[in-house]
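Treating backbone geometry as a discrete language has practical consequences that deserve illustration. Part of our work consisted of pairing the sequence of a single chain with a tokenised description of its backbone. What the numbers capture is local backbone geometry rather than side-chain detail. For completeness, the protein is quoted in full, as a sequence line and a line of structure tokens:
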Amino acid sequence: MIREEWDRMFLNLMPVVSTGLASLSIVLGIMTLLRASPLGQRVYYQDGQYLVAVRYPGQWHDIRSFVQPDNTDVVAICSQIGPDVWQCLDFVCRYVAYKRELGEMWQFPSETLARGEGDCEDTSILLTSLVRAGGAPNCYVAVGSLGGYGHAWSEIDGQVLETTFTSARVVPDPAQYYPYIYFNDTEVIELWPGALGEVFELKRDEATKLNLMAKAVG
């Protein structure tokens, strides 16, 4: 839902919600809260931002803000392991344990490093941050489908970097990975209009997805 559509809905809802309420301040407070979270939408676009609701209720973040190559924790790790892409991938695979999630709770790189666990979005965000901190501008988080299920991974120069393996390795069947969007700290690339919103409509079944990956690796 774009901002203009929400503004029209906001104005249409105001008389309905205000009916029967004694205090105008209560009405305005309720409408302000509703306006900050457009009717359960996970994505909306505003002033060139790609805003996503992937953390706490009522919070919106530009999707680019999750990739943080200048983060002090990211820079410190990168200085230890070096800028090599495969060294960075191996670090993420070995250091960060895979954590299944029932809902969406994207972590920032410092949180993933501190907790030592995360799901596919968290590890892909961390890896992309590390690789870009090492000086590779063409690394992105890719979000899309793996075997029909929602998944995230990193890509550099078209090569899939799977962050949920237990060590760095080449993906055996990259054709299974079907991106909807790419993003990093400076850019968002939707492969078709509205692709970012469609990401959140993909099926979510972590057990089945991981089983597919395990069979592919052998």
In short: The CA atoms of residues 92 and 127 lie 7 Å apart. Strands lie at 43-46, 49-52, 61-62, 97-98, 117-118, 139-146, 149-156, 159-161, 177-183, 188-190. Residues 3-62 form one domain.
